Amino acid sequence: MNLDEIKNPIDAEFELFENNYRSAFNSESALLEQINYYLLQQNGKKLRPIIVLLAAKLCSGTCNTATIDIAVALELLHTASLIHDDVVDSTSQRHGLPSVNAQWTNKVAVLAGDFFLSKSLFFAAKTENQNIMTMFSQIGINLAEGELFQLAKENNHNISETEYLNIIRKKTALFFAYCASMGAISVNGEEQKIMKMSLFGEYLGTSFQIRDDIFDYFDNKNIGKPTGNDIREGKITLPLIFALQNSDEKSKSEILNIINNNDLDNKNISEIIDFTCKNGGIEYATDKMLIYKQKAIAELDIFPESNLKNALISCAEFAAQRNF
Fold first, then answer.
1. How large is the angle between the packed helices 106-126 and 130-152, nearest 10 degrees?
2. Alpha-carbon dihedral of residues 232, 228, 76, 296, nearest 10 degrees?
3. Cα Rg for the chain, rounded, in angstroms?
4. What distance in Å separates the CA atoms of residue 183 and residue 52, rounded to the nearest whole number?
5. How many Å apart are CA 145 and CA 163, to the nearest integer?
6. Which of 12, 82, 232, 321 has CA 20 to 30 A from 88's CA?
7. pLDDT for 218-276, tens place per residue?
8. Residue 175 and residue 205 in contact, taking contact as beta carbons nearer than 8 Å
């Protein structure tokens, strides 16, 4: 099932979201208007607001203005985080196009990210819900901590799977957890349903990020970023973690020599990718990803069968099977 099919049960609500989201891009700054137009043409997946709307409707049968506002706030926060991440990581491509920092400058990108962060806070405040505001603030804390944890581990081949999972939990999984739970909270969902939504989102987010990390080992124009980009940035992710722990000493020593010397030209990147594939890193990460996908789906067991429940199941399937 593709995203358009997943959105079928929330078509009307998603249209309201889109209208409000696009309105948030209005600015009196001519430069920001150029950037905003550029970003709107990229048209990302918008999986986070989809989950917000589906979770709210599954828990109560409806969405309200608070649901729409928090969906907009979360997508704006995601937009801000991507712009800032590209500056931190010196990334030059996003969705197959030059990133904001590459198209303009780092200074402009930081300020544009600040603009979207502030807009996201404005829409979160519109919900007038203290629980939502508290959770929304926690997302920002998690994103910053996750990035700092990852920066501290750059080029560290001794990173463990547990440390890796903690980083992606902070950077990605908890964001999805809050999307699902805030959707339920916006419609005054029952406590048990809010908890189930939170776990659903966290497991889906973990699966989503592992899938993203697997992408780094394959050449796919749909992804919109260069192959081996994470490796170039010194990020040791799950496929390589497993390969390093399950290879012969000679091969491992050769790869560690490349990493430790930061000798990351195209030839050596290809060698690291080949090493990871040959030593079972991709298969292991894929198996882990599917485990988390199934854990996400299992959290929906308390809900009766419906097109909304099926759409959330399809969100989990999409996170693990997508090609972009």
1. 150
2. -120
3. 20
4. 4
5. 13
6. 321
7. 875 555 555 778 888 888 999 999 999 999 999 999 998 888 888 788 898 999 999 99
8. yes
Question: Cα separation of 95 and 78, whole Å?
Answer: 14
Share of the chain above pLDDT 70, in %: 97
- Tell me how far apart the alpha carbons of residues 93 and 224 are, in angstroms, rounded to a whole number: 7
CA angle 164, 167, 169 (to 5 degrees): 110
Using one digit for the tens of pLDDT, what is the confidence trace for 189-201?
Answer: 999 999 999 999 9
Write the CB contacts of 315 (distance below 8 Å, at least 6 apart in sequence).
Answer: 6, 47, 50, 51, 54, 204
Closest Cα partner for 74 from 30, 135, 130, 25? 135
Give the chain's length. Answer: 324
3-state secondary structure 276-302: HHHCCHHHHHHHHHHHHHHHHHHCCCC
| pLDDT above 90 coverage of the chain, percent | 77
| HEC profile of the chain | CCHHHHCHHHHHHHHHHHHHHHHCCCCCCHHHHHHHHHHHHHCCCCHHHHHHHHHHHHHHCCCCHHHHHHHHHHHHHHHHHHHHHHHHCCCCEECCEECHHHHCCHHHHHHHHHHHHHHHHHHHHHCCCHHHHHHHHHHHHHHHHHHHHHHHCCCCCCCCHHHHHHHHHHHHHHHHHHHHHHHHHHCCCCHHHHHHHHHHHHHHHHHHHHHHHHHCCCCCCCCCCCCCHHHHCCCCCHHHHHHHHCCCHHHHHHHHHHHHCCCCCHHHHHHHHHHHHHCCHHHHHHHHHHHHHHHHHHCCCCCCCCHHHHHHHHHHHHHHHCCC
pLDDT for position 323 = 83
Distance between CA atoms of 227 and 175, rounded to whole angstroms?
25
Report the alpha-carbon angle 84-89-91, nearest 5.
Answer: 90
